UniProtKB/TrEMBL annotation:
Organism: Mesocricetus auratus (Golden hamster)
Membrane topology value: Multi-pass membrane protein
Segments crossing the lipid bilayer: 39-62, 74-96, 116-134, 154-172, 212-235, 256-275, 287-306
Lineage: Eukaryota, Metazoa, Chordata, Craniata, Vertebrata
Major localization listed first in the record, in broad terms: membrane
Domain of life: Eukaryota
Signal peptide: none
Record family assignment: Belongs to the G-protein coupled receptor 1 family.
Alphabetical UniProt keywords: Cell membrane, G-protein coupled receptor, Membrane, Olfaction, Receptor, Sensory transduction, Transducer, Transmembrane, Transmembrane helix
Gene3D superfamilies with a match to the protein in the record: Rhodopsin 7-helix transmembrane proteins
Name by which UniProt lists this protein: Olfactory receptor
Amino acid sequence: MLFLPPSSNRPQAADLRNSSTVTEFVLVGFEQSSPSTRALLFTLFLALYSLAMAMNGLILFITWTDPRLNSPMYFFLGHLSFLDICFITTTIPQMLIHLVTKNHTVSFASCMTQMYLVFLVGVAECILLAFMAYDRYVAICHPLNYAQIMSHQVCARLVLTSWIFGMVNGVFLEYMSFRNPFCKDNHIENFFCEAPIVIALSCGDPQFSMKLIFVDAIVVLLSPMVLIVTSYARILASILSRASSSGRGKTFSTCASHLTVVVFFYTSAMFSYMNPRSTHGPDKDKPFSLLYTIITPMCNPMIYSFRNKEMKGAMGRALGRANLA
C-alpha cells in the first residue's frame, strides 16, 4: 500500500485558496417572475425610490439650510437622511435596471464594491441611531447641561465616528466575505450582493467566515441596541417622575418615532446577519432585504421628521421661498 506524505495535499489546498473560476455573479432577484409582475414591481419600486429620495433630500436640505433647525437633533436627522440616500442608491437603481433587462450579471469587482458600500452605510447608520438616542437622553434628563454636552464639535465628532467605524468595519466584513475563492454556482438568490448569500457560494468551508460575521453583527447591532435601550429606559423613568401630562405626550411622541425607526432597521438587519443560513431562503431573504434597503429609508422621514411641528414649519418656509423664487 502506498502512503502519500501529508505535505502532498498542500499544493492542492494552496491552489484552492489562490484560484477562483468565478469572474461574475448573476443576481437572480425577480428574474423568475412573469413580465407583467416585473413591470408592476418596476413601477412600484421606482415610485418608492423616487419618494424616498425626494423626502430624504428635502429633510437634508432644510436641516442644513434653515437656521432655526440648528439643534443637535436636526443635525443628526440630516445625516440620517444622507445615509438613507446613500443606502437606497447603492442597491435599488441596479434592481430597477435588472427588472427591465435580461442581463442580470455583475462583475466580481462590482459585487465587492456594492457589498462594501452596504456594509459602510449600514454600520454607520446603526451607530448614528445609537448616538441619536443618547442625544435625546441628554436633552430630556440633563436639559441644563445639554448645550455644553452636545456641542457642535461633539456632534460632528460623533457623526465622524459613525462613518469611520462603518469604513473600518466594512473592510473587515469585505475581507471575510471574499477570503475564499469562488468556483461553485455564481447565482445570488437576491437583488443585490448580500454577504451571507455570497459567502455560501464560496469554495471550502464558509462556516468560519459566517461565524466571524455573526460575532461582528452582535457587536455592531447589539452594542448600539444596549445604548438605545439604556437611554430610553432612563428617559422613561425621568419623564414619568417629573413631567406634566402634556410634556409627557410630546416626549413620548418624539421617543416613539425614534424607536419605530430603530425597530424597523434593526429587526431586518438582525434577520439577515444573525440567523443561521439554514433558516434562510429566497422567499425569506428578499422581503427583509427590501425592508431595510428601501422601506425603512422611505419611512424614516415620515416616522421621524414629518410628524415634528418644527420640521413642518421649516418645510413650509422652504416651499414658500421656492414659490417666491
